Amino acid sequence: MNSRIRRRILLAASALATTAVTGALPLAARAQAPHKPKVALVMKSLANEFFLTMETGAKDYQKHNADQFDLITNGIKNETDTAAQIQIVEQMIVSKVDAIVLAPADSKALVPVVKKAVDAGIIVVNIDNKLDADVLKSKDLNVPFVGPDNRKGARLVGDYLAKRLKSGDQVGIVEGVSTTTNAQQRTAGFKDAMDAVSAKIVSTQSGEWEIDKGNAVASAMLNEYPDIKALLCGNDNMAIGAVSAVRAAGKQGKVYVVGYDNIGAIKPMLKDGRVLATADQFAAKQAVFGIDTALKALKEHKKQSELSGIVETPVVLVTK
After folding, report:
1. Model-level pTM?
2. Which residues of the chain are modeled with pLDDT < 50?
């Protein structure tokens, strides 16, 4: 065996020994570990049972698909703390998440930080409360929306109430945060139902989605309009507040209360008649569908500008 061949054999043996010791593979044979996307679910107030249900559903979904994506969940303390929600989104941008699934506290105020996220290469999907279409257009943004038709859902509840009213009956609407699209759409749905039976809407005021504020607004309406026959509330938290106001005014059984969301706390009130009806918009499904929309976009390597459209989730009437 000549020296050149001997040298080649020794070099080959040395390379094999190194591979055996280090576990390293030649570069061409190394399989790149697939990147597991990190998805952030940013919600409104976690003091609201609806969003706790949404968070639980998202976490359960991730637990059963732990090899597919990682999940970060966060929310604000109260429904009107828009600045805190903007800060959360900014934190997610710094954390370099791959996607943000957002239930915005304000339909207009969140758009600039959404633009910031998109500019950072993050996929953004909008759930629950739709971002303002005109503001999105002004920022040249396409953000897919995953959620129910809130006007249709409120109309279902309003129509059920309307069967118990007659023309000229006075009603009040306790709506959510007035700058949010879902509050506006639910109020529109309630008005559609009331107009259909010629009920008289004597007052529409914001209860800011919260129990205490809903109670204060309902109490004021009952005091100002003693003949009021019904209070149509944009969510169940405000309906709970309205029920307390009706009781304090000594008008149990005389004033109907309806809500929206079908949270656990409202179910005993539906059962005993303190609340006539609500709507279930399936919080957990909204989160899951939103996450799936984001993951699909990431898997297909789509840019935000290539995303658009609406994924309509179900909403159903719930009664006793």
Report:
1. 0.86
2. 1-31
At residue 297's C-alpha, the angle toward residues 304 and 103, to 5°, is 70
Residues 140 and 207 in one domain: no
Number of domains in the chain: 2
Q: Which two tokens stand for residue 302?
A: 């789509």
Question: Residue 125 in contact with residue 293, Cβ under 8 Å?
Answer: yes
Same domain, 261 and 180: yes
155 with 275, same domain: the answer is: yes
Domain shared by 162 and 89, yes or no: no
Contacts of 299 (CB under 8 A, 6+ apart): none
pLDDT at residue 18, as a whole number: 39
CB-CB contact of 49 with 264 (8 Å): yes
**Contact partners, residue 288, CB within 8 Å, separation at least 6:** 57, 58, 61
Task: Read off the CATH number of the domain in which 308 is found.
Answer: 3.40.50.2300
The amino acid present at 121, given as its one-letter code, is: G
pLDDT score of 32: 56
Q: How far is CA 125 from CA 178, 249, 304, in A?
A: 22, 44, 9
* Domain, as residue range, for 210: 150-280
| pLDDT of the residue at 16 | 36
Residues 156 and 245 grouped into a single domain: yes
Which pLDDT belongs to residue 152?
97
